UniProtKB/TrEMBL annotation:
<feature type="binding site">
    <location>
        <position position="185"/>
    </location>
    <ligand>
        <name>substrate</name>
    </ligand>
</feature>
<comment type="function">
    <text>Required for the formation of a threonylcarbamoyl group on adenosine at position 37 (t(6)A37) in tRNAs that read codons beginning with adenine. Is involved in the transfer of the threonylcarbamoyl moiety of threonylcarbamoyl-AMP (TC-AMP) to the N6 group of A37, together with TsaE and TsaB. TsaD likely plays a direct catalytic role in this reaction.</text>
</comment>
<keyword id="KW-0479">Metal-binding</keyword>
<feature type="binding site">
    <location>
        <position position="309"/>
    </location>
    <ligand>
        <name>Fe cation</name>
    </ligand>
</feature>
<dbReference type="InterPro" id="IPR017861">
    <property type="entry name" value="KAE1/TsaD"/>
</dbReference>
<dbReference type="GO" id="GO:0002949">
    <property type="term" value="P:tRNA threonylcarbamoyladenosine modification"/>
</dbReference>
<dbReference type="GO" id="GO:0061711">
    <property type="term" value="F:tRNA N(6)-L-threonylcarbamoyladenine synthase activity"/>
</dbReference>
<feature type="binding site">
    <location>
        <position position="110"/>
    </location>
    <ligand>
        <name>Fe cation</name>
    </ligand>
</feature>
<feature type="binding site">
    <location>
        <begin position="135"/>
        <end position="139"/>
    </location>
    <ligand>
        <name>substrate</name>
    </ligand>
</feature>
<dbReference type="InterPro" id="IPR022450">
    <property type="entry name" value="TsaD"/>
</dbReference>
<dbReference type="GO" id="GO:0005737">
    <property type="term" value="C:cytoplasm"/>
</dbReference>
<comment type="similarity">
    <text>Belongs to the KAE1 / TsaD family.</text>
</comment>
<keyword id="KW-0819">tRNA processing</keyword>
<feature type="binding site">
    <location>
        <position position="168"/>
    </location>
    <ligand>
        <name>substrate</name>
    </ligand>
</feature>
<feature type="domain" description="Gcp-like">
    <location>
        <begin position="26"/>
        <end position="316"/>
    </location>
</feature>
<feature type="binding site">
    <location>
        <position position="114"/>
    </location>
    <ligand>
        <name>Fe cation</name>
    </ligand>
</feature>
<protein>
    <recommendedName>
        <fullName>tRNA N6-adenosine threonylcarbamoyltransferase</fullName>
        <ecNumber>2.3.1.234</ecNumber>
    </recommendedName>
</protein>
Length: 340
């Protein structure tokens, strides 16, 4: 076992986060700052602003997390994929911290952290390897078979937009705020999901890929039929509900395809783990739960605060990697904006 807690740091996109986890995965302290206010005027993440905000906030957040806690024995930070400025800030800070204290540094792949987050002991009954991971966020949209730390097989990915991106673009078309996913979910609750027959991209295809640009274009075409200016409330709600239903059905279909493939490869069912901001969506969760139960799979959908970007999953991924026998990374490990 590790001689002390693990400090985790996450700065790959627009969440600045630090967390301290005991060797058994217990969360001792965590801090998280979503930079929504900084990016709100631009209705999207501005990389330079994100990097500066990480730089401004991270040191104070790390200090707060360490206050009154046993000294960390390991330092971990996301080193990719993500926005290079933020990665440089987080990884650079973490390496400096590790160097100054003579601690090992572990560089974490953000996608692996999402994939392993469902195994946090505090969530109870951790899914056993191998399982399927569906990662649906603003930057990522993929299905992978998670076989263990360092062992991920990509099964499907998006051919155009990430699903969260589609939520954000449709929200913009409907005149809602940013980020758009939560606003669409609220509006959709008052709408009729059967009102507009929107396309279900990739439905029934043999592979496990995704595509959302056609769905977004279909919404844009419908919006264009109305006079300029805000849509009538009824239409906006029905459109939000119809869009959300199309996304939920598509994600469930892609996941069902992946589960069928898993069954034929392994001869038994497993768990479908879902992570990323879009996993916070109730309609998406309900559709995935139904698909999973039809396939005989368990569904593991961590609570929203663990689905969106956070540092708990980064520290946890380091614990998993070290337990699996991966050594610490040297100081030479460099941030990787792209990490296929
Ligand atoms: O994982 P995340 O916080 O950040 C990354 O992209 O890495 O995901 C953010 C994305 C945004 O596109 C946001 O609109 C979407 O997740 N999202 C939602 C919901 N909450 C966040 N989409 C649909 N329904 C939600 N309730
Ligand atoms: Zn993420």
């Amino acid at each position: 076992a590790l001689p002390g807690p693990v400090l985790g740091i996450e700065t790959s996109c627009d969440e600045t986060a630090a967390a301290l986890l005991a060797p058994d995965g217990t969360v001792l302290a965590e801090a998280l700052w979503s930079q929504h206010e900084e990016h709100l005027p631009y209705a999207g993440v501005v990389p330079e602003i994100a990097a500066r905000a990480h730089l401004a906030r991270l040191p104070g957040m790390v200090r707060a997390v360490l206050e009154g806690q046993p000294a960390p024995a390991v330092v971990a930070a996301t080193v990719g994929p993500g926005l290079i400025g933020g990665l440089v800030v987080g990884a650079g800070y973490a390496k400096g911290f590790a160097l100054a204290r003579g601690l090992p540094f572990v560089g974490i792949n953000h996608l692996e952290a999402h994939a392993l987050s469902a195994r946090l002991p505090s969530l109870g009954s951790p899914p056993a390897f191998p399982y399927l991971t569906l990662l649906v966020s603003g930057g990522h949209c993929l299905l992978a078979e998670t076989r263990g730390p360092g062992e991920h097989v990509l099964i499907g990915t998006t051919r155009d937009d990430a699903v969260g991106e589609a939520f954000d673009k449709v929200a913009k078309l409907l005149g809602l705020g940013w980020p758009g996913g939560p606003a669409i979910e609220v509006l959709a609750a008052r709408g009729d999901p059967g009102r507009f027959p929107l396309p279900r991209p990739m439905l029934g295809r043999a592979d496990c890929d995704f595509s959302f640009s056609g769905l977004k274009t279909a919404v844009a075409t419908l919006v264009d039929d109305y006079p300029p200016g805000p849509l009538p409330e009824r239409e906006a709600a029905d459109l939000a509900a119809s869009f959300q239903a199309a996304v939920a059905e598509t994600l469930a279909d892609r996941a069902a395809r992946a589960m069928a493939g898993f069954l034929s490869r392994h001869g038994r069912a497993s768990t479908l783990v879902v992570s990323g901001g879009v996993a916070a969506n109730g309609a998406v969760r309900a559709a995935l739960a139904e698909a999973a139960s039809r396939a005989g799979f368990a569904l593991a959908a961590p609570p929203a605060r663990l689905c969106t970007d956070n540092a708990v999953m980064v520290a946890w991924a380091a614990i998993e990697r070290l337990a699996a026998g991966f050594g610490a990374d040297g100081m030479a490990i460099a941030p990787r904006p792209r990490w296929p």
